[in-house]
Every structure is written in C-alpha cells, then in structure tokens.
Amino acid sequence: MLNSEMVRAHFPALGSGAIFFDNPGGTQVVQEVIQRMAHYYQHTNANHGGSFYTSRSSDAVVHESRQAMADFLNAARPEEIIFGQNMTSLTLHISRSIARLLKEGDEIIVTRLDHDANIAPWLLIAEDRGCQIRWVDIHPEDCTLNMEELERQLSSRTKLVAIGYASNAVGTINDVRRAVQLAHSVGALCFIDAVQYAPHRTIDVQELDCDFLACSAYKFFGPHLGILYGKYELLDRLTAYKVRPASNELPDKFETGTQSFESIAGTLGALEYLSWLGTTFGEEYIPRYQERFSGRGLALKQAMATIEAYEIDINTALLNTFNSVPGLHIWGITDPARMSERVPTFSFTLHGKDPEAIAEALGQENIYVWNGNFYALAVIERLGLEEQGGVVRVGLAHHNTTAEISRLHEALHRL
Ligand SMILES: Cc1ncc(COP(=O)(O)O)c(C=O)c1O
Q: Could you please report the per-residue DSSP string of 82-105?
C-alpha cells in the first residue's frame, strides 16, 4: 500500500499548499526529473553524435531513457521508442508516413470518445488520400464506447483503427486489446492514444499487440515530451518525413531535428521515481508479474499496480463528494463497483452553473481544476455540452489524498 507522505515528498510543487486536481492536463514533476534535467544542463549539454565527452554523455542518457521507456511500455526493443515534442506532434508526424500506405476508397475508423489528437491527424490524411472516415459512437448513459459499432464498421477496406486507451474527458477505459484484435482481423493497423492511461495503469504493448501507441511524459510526472511506440518492422518499413543527411536507421529516422535531450533525461527521472515507488510499496504485486518481468520492468509494473489500487480506493471518496452535491451530474461511469473500468478523471456539470465560473471559484480557493472540452471535442459535442461551456474536470493522481478531496467537498458545498 502506498504511503502518501513518502510519495508527496517527491513532488516539490505540492509544498505550495495548492490542490492539484488538474492532472489530466499535466502533472507536477518529481524531484528526480528536476535533478536529471539540471544534471543534463550542467554536465552533458551537447548535440547528438559528437566525438567528445558531453555529446557522448548526452547520447548515453538518451539511450538509457529510451531503454527505460521500452521497459515502461514493455516494448521488445528500445529502437521501437520514438521521442518527440508531444503526442500531437508525433501523431501528426507519423500520420504522413502512414498515409503513404493508403489509397482512395480505403477507410479509417476513429471514435467520438477520443482526444482530437487521435482524430484530426486521421481526418487530414483521409482528406489527402481520398479515404473514408467511419465514426464509432458512445453509449451516452455511461460514456463507454460502442464496441459493437466498431465491429460493424470494419471491412476489408479498413486500413487503420484509431482508439484511445482512456478518455481525457470522462475517464472511460476502452477495451483496446479487443480493438487491436478486431483491426488485425481485417488486416488493419491499430493506433492507441495512451496519454491518459499511462499515469494510472500498466501498459504492455507486446501483450496488446498494437501497432502504435503514443503517450506524453508530462502526464506521468515527467517533463514536456511525447513518446511514440511502433512495432519495429512497421517503423522500419514506413517512409519517414526527414531531412536527407539524417540517419535512415530507427529510431533516428523519425526523430527529426534536434531533440529536447534535457526532457528525455527528465523522463528517465520520472521512470526512476516510478521504479522507486514500485519497489518500495508494490511488493505484493511481485507474484503477478515476476514470471514475465525482472529488474526495472518488474519495478514499473509493481508501481503502476500500486497506483491503480490506491486510485481506485480514493475514487470512492470523490464519488461520495460529488453525490452529496445537489444538482451535480457526473458524465461517465459512476457505479462504485465499476471503478476498474475508468481512470480517476471525472467530469461534471452543476445545474445552473457555468463550468468556467466553477473552475474560477475553485481556483480562488487554491483548488486547480479544468473546464471546457480539453480538445475532447467530439464527446463533449456528442453529450450536447459544448454550447454551455463543456464540463468541469477533476482528475486525480496518486499523490492526491482524501484530505484534499474533503477540501473540494467543502468548496463545492460553499458554491
Ligand atoms: C487523451 C489525450 N490524447 C492526446 C493528448 C495530447 O497530448 P500532447 O499534449 O502530448 O500533444 C492529450 C492531452 O491532453 C490527451 O489527454
């Protein structure tokens, strides 16, 4: 079981007294990230590929971070990990390469539950190549994806299925394993947006058998950096949009220009923190994972299992708070028995109140929450909420506590 005090001591920003419920928009960083980044600038700041100490040290830390990310996602090899500015840029970048595999009349499946970063790139390449887009709807009553519709939309023309692992608006976890199987059953590729899932649960790209999976380090306690996983053979086969002198080898061919090496070093710090968390609090999960994982890979699995259990536990307090406020409606799964089907990202509306005014009022009390559509435009429109300013989003991370939820409870009642 996770010890909150020990965990919180790793997050310098938590000392400010503010309550950070803005986690789905970006998390606070741990001390390990700051140390890694400061060390990078002080001792190893140089461009890639030089024949001198700082450049070699810089390349070494990038290599280690890549290996650590491969462990985090359980990629088969580190060359399957591509670093970039953020998930959106990486997805737009690789979408151009994927577009070259498409021809007129081909089809791409996207969902109404996704962040636009896993919709717009596919709409754009569909337009470029004369492809059809097929949408998968949600069940509005609990904001789960209509998997039967996904199945119905598939055909021999389907070339790509783009699906989120967890919704950044309503928290639903999708059955991406099934989506990959369905995509593969018609010979299509599957692209998973794991940005909102990565801070909360373990990811195993080999078990999922997905073709691509993207996430962002700044959502899992690291710096602003995007990460794209792709199957080696696939990445190798794709044409990269790159400059001619740059290497044709993986991962370099997709890492265009000069990378944010300091952020890549910082991401290693975030994974070192998670490894610490796993080995310190996650002993009970060793039997679950030790057959397939060892060393850092095992520690990271232990970490995410520990985080999952803690978050499901404190979800109950948050649900009780929401349920105690008259006129408050939670959009998404609310059944306490179904908390394993969602991440702790809750969106609500309060009868007669403007979401922005609520976020503003909570902000005045040093409780940070987001309002709006968070670029999850399709689902907010589908729920008919866009015109009225979207929703208020309270997103927990594993450093949040029930004491903080009590302060939200009081503040909401004052509202
Ligand atoms: C589910 C989801 N996908 C994609 C993104 C975009 O990520 P990035 O900011 O790294 O481009 C976000 C950002 O909030 C997100 O929540």
A: EEES-HHHHHHHHHHHHHTT--TT
Strand partners, 212: 191, 230
Is the minimum distance from the CB of 196 to ligand 1 under 6 angstroms? yes
d(CA 185, CA 286): 34
Residue whose entry in the numeric block shows the structure tokens 């994927």: 98
Q: Are the C-beta atoms of residues 298 and 71 closer than 8 Å to each other?
A: no
Residue nearest to atom 16 of ligand 1 (CA): 168
Please state whether beta strands 158-164 and 189-193 pair in parallel, antiparallel, or not at all (unpaired): parallel
| Closest to 133 (Cα-Cα) out of 406, 378, 394 | 378
The CA distance from 137 to 140, in Å, is 9
Instruction: Show the low-confidence residues of the chain (pLDDT under 70).
Output: none
Closest CA to 405 of 315, 318, 310: 318
Q: Which atom of ligand 1 is nearest to the CA of 167?
A: 1
8 A C-beta contact, residue 393 and residue 380: no
Question: Given ligand 1 and candidates 375, 379, 393, which is best to mutate, with the most ligand atoms within 8 Å of its CB?
Answer: 375
Q: Is 115 in the pocket of ligand 1 (CB under 6 A)?
A: yes
pTM, two decimals, is 0.98
Distance, CA of 28 to CA of 108 (rounded, Å) = 35
Please check whether residue 342 is in contact with residue 21, taking contact to mean a CB–CB distance below 8 angstroms: no
H or E stretch including 278?
helix 261-281
- What letter does residue 247 receive in the DSSP assignment? -
Nearest to 62 by CA among 86, 46, 42: 46
Any atom of ligand 1 within 6 Å of the Cβ of 23: no
Q: Is the CB of 193 under 6 A from ligand 1?
A: yes
Residue 203 near residue 194 (C-beta atoms within 8 A): yes
Q: Which amino acid is at 353?
A: K
Task: For 246-295, write each residue's pLDDT tens digit.
Answer: 999 999 999 999 999 999 999 999 999 999 999 999 999 999 999 999 99
Determine if ligand 1 sits within 6 Å of the CB of residue 173. no
